Amino acid sequence: MTDAVSLQGVTKQFGDVVAVRDLDLSIADGEFFSLLGPSGCGKTTTLRMIAGFEFPTSGSLLIHGNEMGLQPPNKRPINTVFQSYALFPHMTVEDNVGFGLHMKKRGSAEITDRVKRALDMVQLGHRAAAMPRQLSGGQQQRVALARALVNEPEVLLLDEPLGALDLKLRQAMQLELKDLQTRVGITFIYVTHDQDEALTMSDRIGVMNEGSLLQVGSPQEIYEHPTSRFVADFIGEINLLPAVVVDHETVRLRGNHLIAASTGAGSGESVTVAIRPERFELYDLDEPIPDGMNRIEGRVTRRIYHGDVFYYDVDTPAGLIEAKEENRPGIELYDIGEQTIAVWAPAATTVVRD
Amino acid sequence: MADVMTDVEAVTPELEAAAERAESRRGVLLALPSGFYLVLFFAIPLVIVLVYSFASRSSTGLTQLRDWSLDAYQRLWDPLVGEIALRSLILAVATTAICLAVSYPFAYYIATRGPTMRNVLLVLVMIPFWSNFLVRTYAWRVLLGSDGPISQISQALGGEPIRVLFTNTAVLIGLVYGYLPFMVLPLYAALERMDWRLVEAARDLYADGWTAFRKVTWPLSRPGVIAGSILVFIPTLGAYVTPAILGGARTTLLGDYIVSQFLAARNQPFGSALSVTVMTVMLGATILYFRTGARSL
Q: What is the ipTM of this complex?
């Protein structure tokens, strides 16, 4: 099966500024793919190139195997849900949704029917005659979605479509979007700077920074096995400790503290060890610790109550680490100044090069 | 501490209402100077004109504030008046249409430049205002004259001498020149506010460049088109200075005609009746234009 979208060596320059650098990426048919990164990382430029609003400076862009890099947007089998929706303010909801079908010169009976079905799909059939400004943010978002999906595009592009909504609505819409994507089976390419959003919805995530694609993988791969310091740091909370490789299975942290980790690097190399806060378990000094686990002793310097979890700062010879413990009934709390042992599995220790 | 809290809560609604009243009082005060000026130099003269239009004339041509009648208005049905009005109307419509056709692409160009370039271009649009309108119109007389530079260039290239001065064409050129900025600026303001992502959305939904313009840019810039058209149409319909300097004696327009009633013919009631009628018609047309424009937005 050919990929829905394939970018090969795509570079985009604006004058001297390289917005996207030598990007290689293939997105499968029916996939929910997210481009994740901080603002200015090139994710929006990448999306705009796929949509046809920007043309690549070099490289090749294929849509279902056809070269499309230099085609204008109206010649591409792709539709976009814009950030802040870009609904036509001078047209009714119905006319907004029917715009693409009108442009494709469909019969009026077909247009009426398909617009109605699209609006019903996003539960806005009763607002067909309203003007966009009469709708709430969430409703406008749905109209934008219906306006794109009614055309049955081969690929749907979404540019931070939930950015303008408040948290509760955003979370509800995330699930709704994912559900919708599964139902219609269209390839979604979703641009966001919100890692929660990307982790919740995506089949795969591509993390970008400074115009380059750093890592592509499933949400789990990205979260559990970041391959670079940037990805580790950008996704979720993480402890980053400087270390030196001893051999294939051992690294030395600061304070001459040896721990087990799969290094995949030559001995003597300077690396960073990344450990998620929730991977730590805190033990008393005299408590028995399971075999084969990494451990480091330290003093609790801060405890923050966060409802479902407690955050601890533990001052160790290797540096300050943050640990996260679930607020289970009967959990033993450590007070500030108490000594404790932070324990974690070697498998939860990711070694990244800088 | 607790006392302070209750105080604040109890006072708030009244306090808000009082603040609002104070605000509106301040507003009235601020509007007072301009209001005074407008009443003195605009509203009162307007009332005088209205009163005069019902007055009568003595045998020596003096206006008499008695024997009130509609005689002056009856003269409006004179075919000569109709002819002059039609000529003025055609000229005003042509001026507005040409101004719009020339200004729209230019305003579009300015609105899509970077901030620095934009300001430079806007200053260029306004530069003509730095010199006197009369002087600029006389300059056109030199330019368009049969021995002026335009005619000379035409002759140097082997063509005929160009004789446009003292024709309606010369008046049209002068009017378009004079009122172009009044079209450019509102169009620029409308296009500058334009959300270009809407054009991208139209392109994304399979519209080609021209269709996206027709379906999105044009309707959304219509407030600017309406404002600019009114700003050009109304003064050109009653234009006096430009036709007087560039136009011929045979092509009387509404402006000259009204002036000649007050000065040469000494028929102030008829001149007033003409003025009142032109104003009423233009006001009505403007309201209608705004209404239709507003509905399609």
A: 0.84
